[in-house]
Design brief:
homodimer, 173 residues, alpha/beta, Rossmann fold, 5-stranded parallel sheet, two-stranded antiparallel sheet, 4 helices
Chain lengths: 173, 173
Amino acid sequence: MDLKQCIRDVPDFPKQGILFKDITTLLKDRQALKEAIDRMCAPYRDMEIDQIVGIESRGFIFGTAMAMALNAGFVPIRKPGKLPAETEREEYALEYGTDAIEIHRDAIKPGDRVLIVDDLLATGGTASAAVKLIKKLGGRVTGACFLVELIFLNGRQKLGNVPVHVVMGFEGE
Amino acid sequence: MDLKQCIRDVPDFPKQGILFKDITTLLKDRQALKEAIDRMCAPYRDMEIDQIVGIESRGFIFGTAMAMALNAGFVPIRKPGKLPAETEREEYALEYGTDAIEIHRDAIKPGDRVLIVDDLLATGGTASAAVKLIKKLGGRVTGACFLVELIFLNGRQKLGNVPVHVVMGFEGE
């Protein structure tokens, strides 16, 4: 099954000149969704992952389904102010300015084997902030998994020695 | 397994006087997570659901895991401006003012059997807007499923004749 055929290109979203990879056409196709999640999980079947960390909000779409498949728990990383208990926060650079993400302090136990999940690896800013948050809590980042990679943005560089697994990579237009 | 024991009460979040039901303590516990999703899915095993509609963003946490368990597709309902292609929009009342949610116009086929999923049934405003969106697209709303219901807020009333299934109900304090 060619999952790339299930993704829709939307020009000029969210702004002029960006060709947006819309995954909702894949998600609504039950066969494609199942295959996507199977392929995201494939490298981790025997790795005894303790926690899947999903990044708000499209990372949530894949994280819990993968947690069920890999017999792990699920931990959300969210935008500031959304998590109710005590959090750690990490800022990261945007094209202009900065943004931040947060994780609950008690979400990860020291030594936990943690897998980071999101829909898209673009510049890698959010994912590398997620790596820092997990390490702050003493977790071991076993890998980072994405449905789609925009290869031309070199996001992997920001993830250092964290093993990256993607289902589909796109070169620049 | 008493799933209520896995939920944490956080006082005064998101504002003074609100006792917030924090589900992240349940999500990170792999046994509790599995049991929660099994119990959310239980009434729908033989109902041939076509699409699970998850409401941003905590509905995403359960929606895809349920889609995998029930052999359905997944459709996100999102806050305005987040979905890239053509959308339908529905406004709903808040305590002060209004908010809105959107769905892609091509997300649901006429006649599709659709299940709405979210973490929490509170006043029912968002869920009833979701029902309207699905009906606009010609979908049949087979049910609405929530992990937690705040019974004292009477959200079910807003859902009319849509069958509601919840795993845990809480009375007022």
